[in-house]
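Re: your question from the hallway

Yes, I did run it. Sequences:
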Amino acid sequence: MADDFSLVPPHGARTDWTIDQGWSGYTAEEHRVWVTLHERQTAILDGRACDPFLRGLDALDLHRSGIPDFARLNADLSRLTGWTVVAVPGLVPDAVFFEHLANRRFPAGRFIRKPEQLDYLQEPDVFHDVFGHVPMLTDPVFADYMQAYGEGGLRALGRGQLHHLARLYWYTVEFGLVETPAGLRIYGAGIASSAAESRYALESPKPLRLRFDLARVMRTPYRIDDFQDVYFAVPSLRALLDATLADFEQLYARLALLPDLRLGAIEPTDRVLQIAQ
Ligand code: HBI
Ligand code: FE
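Structure:
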């Protein structure tokens, strides 16, 4: 959780924590890292990512070789759904993050991982943020969800409910699956930007896969340093957006009376989904 930062932006960043991407400053090696990750991931996601994600990759022409220039990317993205990508030095405080999302600005790390870190890194880099998150922002319904999430996040902060809302972000925006007639498909960026987890999330018998339920998600803790023990699948992106219309006051009051759920446990009300739909 990035809320242990002071609210003072790092040296060189603006008060909203944004920095210039400085696209011309990337080295040939950094562009090569993007190309390597991009080629590997697009091969794996064919048949595993949901159609809006794959359409977004094409619409934003992320197939070009190298780290995208946000200025060019934003010309396409803003025309599609009014979203833009803004460069930040890394994780930003929750309030800053939500404020950007509420204004259809997606904060993306400027840095890219080192060649020896291809498979995992602690902090979101430009590949996780732009390849993982941005394609879904070309889908009008998901674009609305992300803005509604940002607005909800600002309200949640004001009511000490961040931990519940952070779980919603984790189990949808980062690790969400969606049900399709062809079976479960990926839309979460944490999966879409990871070669191993793209396979694991859809094919491993180990994790639990449950039908999305807002209160159930908010009662479910998560770990940040390993594959997920549970994935939640929404019946559609529209159902995900509709979930933000719920009365969160009532929900938070209900959650205050209920304990967190143990990771990996199955609740009587859970709708367990099978891998092959
Ligand atoms: N900052 N740059 C950046 N990217 C994130 O994904 C991010 C963040 N700050 C806070 C945050 N995510 C989490 O607290 C979300 O769950 C809200
Ligand atoms: Fe992310």
